[in-house]
Amino acid sequence: MISKNKIKLLRxxxxxxxxxxxxxxxxxxxxxxxxxxxxxxxxxxxxFIEDTINLKSNNNLLNKIKxxxxxxxxxxxxxxxxxxxxxNSQGIIAEVNIEKYKSNALKDIDGSVIVLNKISDPGNLGTxxxxxxxxxxxxxxxxxxxxxxxxxxxxxxxxxxxxxFKNIIVADNxxxxxxxxxxxxxxxxxxxxxKDITKISAKEKWALILGSEAHGFDEEFKQFNKITITxxxxxxxxxxxxxxxxxxxxLLNK
Amino acid sequence: MISKNKIKLLRxxxxxxxxxxxxxxxxxxxxxxxxxxxxxxxxxxxxFIEDTINLKSNNNLLNKIKxxxxxxxxxxxxxxxxxxxxxNSQGIIAEVNIEKYKSNALKDIDGSVIVLNKISDPGNLGTxxxxxxxxxxxxxxxxxxxxxxxxxxxxxxxxxxxxxFKNIIVADNxxxxxxxxxxxxxxxxxxxxxKDITKISAKEKWALILGSEAHGFDEEFKQFNKITITxxxxxxxxxxxxxxxxxxxxLLNK
Lengths: 254, 254
Fold this sequence. Notes:
The first copy, chain A, is of the alpha/beta class. Chain A is 34% helix and 22% strand. Chain A folds into 2 domains: 4-97, CATH 3.30.1330.30; 102-252, SPOUT methyltransferase, trefoil knot domain (Alpha/beta knot, 3-Layer(aba) Sandwich). The first copy, chain A, has helices at residues 4-12, 16-22, 30-38, 60-67, 77-83, 86-89, 122-134, 152-158, 173-182, 240-252; strands spanning 24-28, 43-48, 72-74, 92-97, 102-103, 113-116, 139-143, 167-171, 186-196, 206-210, 225-228. In chain A, helix 7 (122-134) links the parallel strand 6 and strand 7 (139-143). The longest helix of chain A is centred in the middle third of the chain and has 13 residues, at 122-134.
């Protein structure tokens, strides 16, 4: 049995303001919830409709939920439909505590970092997270004009990567630059024109800045070393998440 | 002035069957149309509403349309709305002839190729096309159980890459394998377990097979060399289009 207040809270988490107020977000769908649990996410509760998981069968996801002592409950389809985005939820949602990940303390960043400057497409942002987690990046910095990484679409395309990181930090351009310079980071901006990434020998600690596909970088970042993925053809564009993967593979396999 | 029959035809192109019957597809939005023209796409006509392009101003896109002698016309907002997906069309659509790209003649493939096995996400498929075009790949092969690459979402995420290729071929698994073997292609399957891509010295002519994120490869492809992008972390997954970019960068920069 789910309370009316809980339903109201979960519904409100579709909106950024309430995610920030409550420091909670919603996960939808089996794969996202399972991958998030694998990354030891702080899940407050899981709700599903009866068709989704047969409580009597030996279900992988349910076993993980039990093992992690996560509270779970079966709810009616009607209640479920009021909370969820029915298309992608597959009859199961979770409430996740995001306090640990939402920080603005640049001093907490660990090792080489990805800096995302006004990325506005949630699918791209989530895919960048997923790619960065694959390569073991521990900290992500977002400039304050980027979208909220805890929106539903971004969480979905991140497939649990959000919860792999030590921190996801939102900060102003100037603060970010000041910190990276003070800490002797080598700063690279991925751009269409710059030094070929295959010719770069990265220092131990670097920051890779990725801008928006549509709008590029903010002025403050244009002073830094530009690096580029040399193209073989006349086509003009590469998806920003694909570019992120190619550059990470280069910087980390030298 | 647009005829009722033309409106009916354009509307029908949202459906795969009619795209195949008429060998036409719809392009929506300024950037997609402009990038497609840059790739010398065979565009039959362009329609836009008056707010979209001011005919009297010096407009880049309009200049390109005129230079390529593409027929264009202003239509009413009401007519426009019956044809287009209003969210992404930005008040402009084009009809494109896809005859040249839809083929099943494997003998026409040129150089190293990407083989896509039952990819079902149109956004991923379009991004793979965009990435392959960046790296100068000339031919794409899709197994017959893949989605139609000329659907709206796939065209949108391809950002004109579709029209860069010499050919996009749809064929059955067995025919594909027979052809690649006869032509002495080195065949690689991207998988979670396999030889590290940084350790591979690719032959001159290779085929890279990418499977669906959710369902992997069809049985017929499992006999081939598996290659993998070595991960640095405990996370389990990489987006298939990102994987495509990383592998292409490795195979082509040796």
